[in-house]
Amino acid sequence: MAYDLEEQEQIDAIKAWWKQNGNTVLLSVAVFVAIVAGIQGWRAYQHKQAGQAAGLYEVLQGAADSHDVNKVREAAGQLIENFPRTSYATHAALVAANANYESGDAKSAKAQLQWVLGHNESDEVRDVARLRLAGILLDEKNYGEALKQLETKHGAAFDGLYADLKGDVLLASGKESEAQASYKLALEKIDPTSAYRGLVQMKLDGLGG
Predict the structure, then answer these.
(1) What is the mean pLDDT of residues 21-50?
(2) Measured between alpha carbons, how far is 152 from 147 in angstroms, rounded to an integer?
(3) How far, in Å, CA of 90 to CA of 7, rounded?
(4) Contacts with 167 (C-beta within 8 Å, 6 or more apart), sequence order
(5) Using CA atoms, how far apart are residues 122 and 3, in angstroms rounded to an integer?
(6) Model confidence at 73, in pLDDT bands (50, 70, 90)?
(7) What is the DSSP string of 181-208?
(8) Closest listed residue to residue 168, CA positions, set 197, 139, 133
(9) Among 145, 189, 155, 185, which residue's Cα sits nearest to residue 167?
(10) So which residues are the signal peptide here (predicted)?
(11) Higher pLDDT, 162 or 8
(12) Structural domains for the chain
């Protein structure tokens, strides 16, 4: 096919541009395709990971319900090691901490709660872990460390529970007037319709109200 002079000049210019920039264009396209493929692959990987983690968590829940501490430890360990960024790992650590403590292994329970505090981004989950850790420290008569946990900033929804446990720690350490003040604060913060208020009120009454 014959081209006139102007068309031929345009074709030659395009050829020259492609010769100079073609490799860059192809590389850019290849990179784009690789990125898209990578994103799709990552999503598929995440979906697979979530499915595997969910399956393990079901095993853990069943073991916890049947009080099979060894199986709880095994499932929780696999979740924490293989799926540490999932919420399943966090909740597995909380379940395992409870199972370990009930079986007399306070050291492992505390380690798992500390893991939650260091690896979870949810303030609410950290508040739960810190509250449980403080309870274990109270049982160990480590009052200073227990108070340190309870005096850490936490969500308003936990104010009543933190104040109540703080009252327990203060009472156990012989600080009755401070414990009384903490129980009063707990009553102010706990939902008026909650049956839990009755327990706090009993503690307060025991100190003379």
Answers:
(1) 46
(2) 9
(3) 68
(4) 179, 180, 182, 183, 186, 200, 203
(5) 69
(6) very high
(7) HHHHHHHHHS-TT-THHHHHHHHHHHTT
(8) 139
(9) 185
(10) none
(11) 162
(12) 24-121 (1.25.40.10), 126-209 (1.25.40.10)
